[in-house]
Amino acid sequence: MTTMSTDMLAAIRADASSSVERDPRWNRILRRDRTADGLFWYSVITTGIYCRPSCPSRRPRAENACIHGTVDEARATGARPCRRCNPDGALAENSRNALVTRACRMIEASETPPTLDVLAQEAGLSPTYFQRVFRRITGLSPRQYGEACRAERLRGVLRSAATVTEAIYAAGYNSSSRFYEKADSLLGMKPGALRGGAPAERLRFAIGQCSLGAILVASGERGIVAILMGDDPDRLARDLQDRFPNAELVGADPDYEDHVAQVVGLVETPAVGLGLPLDIRGTAFQQRVWNALRAIPAGQTATYTDIARAIGHPESVRAVANACGANALAVAIPCHRVVRRDGTLSGYRWGVARKKALLEREKDA
């Protein structure tokens, strides 16, 4: 058996020390930076404990410290939690939420979205780790969030700007040609059409009957934009017109009846699913909520608090409820699967009786 020399051990410890000291998080540990709590942890080899960055305990030597991106990584070393700083406490999640909130405000206030490196430096984290934290909490990368913010600004200025090009630059885009490459996916339609109130958008629709009453289905070029339910077919048609006031609505299309039949099939037999594409339109926050709703398995329910936690915004329960109420794709985006904390049925845009019936069918499927 070969014994490691003293010189070799010293070299390994020196290399470990150098690696920790090069990590930007180490300086935050040395400063006991409270804003870093919940973003990372460190463990101490010589004491066998792990701590928050702000722990009041004496700082370890760099060669005796390991920095961890999650509390689970710290536990995996076999270390135990520090009794002084309680690194497993609830403050950790709050700190991460606060950091991402600051980054979101920074992105929203910037004409041109800050780069990942700039955002990470502001947070005092490596770009890779910052992006991981940001995506886990928001469901989007910083770049995707920035694009969504610019698209929202563009929607706001398109109608008042003299030209589409002027609006593009006013919204923070520095190249109209690069913008046009992805304009459809960002706005849901051509910018010129949106500027004119979407008069060029053509929506096919049809109204059918299911066991829960009348049902309206409408589609654009990319997929279904609305599934509405109610008792009065005429009222459903007016609702569609209110949602798309300048679109050309085309009804009485025999070829479109199959779409309605498939949606009715989803209502009557939830297990069959829906094989038609959806054109989901909403803000970045709404889309995160709706994606979380689609992740709820048929036959199960979740509370508004569950959804808020799932998207990384536990404090946004009311905003989650508003997003559920804004859903225009009944059943396909299953907001009917959201219930109150005590399990009772909360309000439903298309009537609590329909919500109860849908849940009972899914439970029996």
Automatic annotation (TrEMBL):
CDD domains: ATase. SUPFAM superfamilies: Ada DNA repair protein, N-terminal domain (N-Ada 10), Homeodomain-like, Methylated DNA-protein cysteine methyltransferase domain, Methylated DNA-protein cysteine methyltransferase, C-terminal domain. Residues 101-197 form the HTH araC/xylS-type domain. It catalyses: a 4-O-methyl-thymidine in DNA + L-cysteinyl-[protein] = a thymidine in DNA + S-methyl-L-cysteinyl-[protein]; a 6-O-methyl-2'-deoxyguanosine in DNA + L-cysteinyl-[protein] = S-methyl-L-cysteinyl-[protein] + a 2'-deoxyguanosine in DNA. The active site is at 51 (nucleophile), 335 (nucleophile). SMART domains: HTH_ARAC. Zn(2+) binds at residues 51, 55, 82, 85. Keywords: Activator, DNA damage, DNA repair, DNA-binding, Metal-binding, Methyltransferase, Transcription, Transcription regulation, Transferase, Zinc. One of its GO terms (molecular function) is methylated-DNA-[protein]-cysteine S-methyltransferase activity. GO terms for biological process: DNA repair; methylation. Pfam families: Ada_Zn_binding, DNA_binding_1, HTH_18. Its cofactor is Zn(2+). The keyword Transmembrane helix does not apply. Binds 1 zinc ion per subunit. This is O6-methylguanine-DNA methyltransferase. It comes from Komagataeibacter diospyri.
